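hey all, quick one before standup. I had two proteins in the batch that finished overnight and I want to keep them in one place so we stop losing track of which output belongs to which input. First protein below, input sequence then structure tokens straight from the run.
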Amino acid sequence: MKIKFTNSFKRSSKKLPPQIKNKSEEALTLFIENELHPQLYFNKLKGHLKDRYSIKGDF
């Protein structure tokens, strides 16, 4: 699976407070290790983005 970050995501992530940025990096690490990890919410997008997914981590 290829992971691609949008430019908007890259800009927004640079502005995050360090604590939130660390949690984001933890979620990404979990995803790389196991995309079905129970702490991750992995959803297929709809509409014109139907071939893409979103990931949300809850820590």
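OK second protein, same deal, sequence then tokens:
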Amino acid sequence: MKTPSGAVWRADWVDARGKRRRELLGTDKRLAERLLRERINERDAILSGVLTGKERLTLSALKDEYLADLATYAKPPHHADTKRCLERWVEILDDPEVRRIEPSAVLQRRRERLKEGRANRTINAEAGALTSALNWAVRQGLLNASPLANLKPLPLTAATRKKKRRALTDGEIAKLVKAARQHDEQTRRYVMAERTIESGTKSRSWNERERRPPIPQEPLFRTLLETGIRWNEAATLRWSDLDLGTLTLTIRPENEKSSRGRSIPITSELASALQRLRERHEATTGRLPHAHAPVFLASRGAAWKGRMNSNARKLLRDLLAAAGIAWKDEDTGETIDLHALRHTCATRLARQGMPPQSLMKLLGHADINLTMKHYTHLRTEDVRQDLAGISPLPLGDDDEAAPIRAAESELGTYSALDPAEQTDLDPGCDSQLQGVEEFGRSTPARVRTWNRLVRSQVLYPVELRVRFRVRKITASPR
């Protein structure tokens, strides 16, 4: 068709639904022909079943649909993380059509993140959000195949882990709990203004002002160390979840990572500490906590957030510093954070002989390999102590083997034969030794390792040495 500015090429074709389509493709004939071929090929692919006809869906539109469906069954933290990753991918890839997403672009982004020093696990999580959205589109019939179907995740090994945790020793546990008690006492004295009142610098009315004591934090860290529950599980724990009669702590499915829920037995000492904590809640808030009130509160009475926040991390860092414990080992790079307290509980119980199945149930794991691989930081000394209680290897108790074992214990596996030792043999064994010498000379295929004529130090097999020693021991005198 002609326009005032010149000729414009218009395409006229029938789409996959049988509807006639007309579209202006530009002033360049070659470009217009290429665009028309693309539309014809796309129509033929849809008619043949290779495409679904919905591939023009953009990544941003897919993100909205996927997140809306994900919100119906995923937990809020996972939904928030996935949303953040997908929004970043929309920005990086410039919101393309989902069918035109190139694996090379994803690989390029992955290489950039590796150069930034990100861990393989973090990079896999970012790429996993995109691949999960594309796989969801395939299941919903929006895509015939995912462009990233053959994208393999980066390996996850001990060498690729950027954040390594370590377990506290028994001595460090005692120091940390003591530091928490001292911190609670210092906070109480500060809030109650005891030092200022003792100094007498304020008026009587100021000294008599009503002040409520802070919530102690020692029971929180003690519970994390004794039960091994996650921080989110501790922050969302309610008084109705604690049964002081049966000494049981219940993690509700909606607060557990695996959404299965579990019951954890607790000691009577920990139950008494939690009961005293409830009384402190009443003194601080002015009312007895109800059944659905949080068990653990911050010092001023505010509820802890479910996800690890900066205040909780800072509190642990302060306690570690007060206890003289480095939060990060400069040599190994291992760190101590809130989740490391869970590792500490698992390692401590494993050292004391708790069966792996019981430990797995306590931690709420579905795979015992996860429990033993990542949560039990056993040292070489722990294995050495376990081996000390194992019975020695049975070597047999028959009379013929006893002299041989005694000779092996005395002489070792191999030794050098000093010529002076040749006179130690019993003269009654000369005939036997002569037979051995003749045996060595009559065997051309063997290398003679010892006879009475050799004066230099040589190594000889334990079988011959033991035979000579045993004959000396057992030979009767003339």
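Flagging for whoever picks this up: The chain has four domains: 2-48, 59-139, 165-384, 401-474. The two ends are 130 Å apart (CA to CA).
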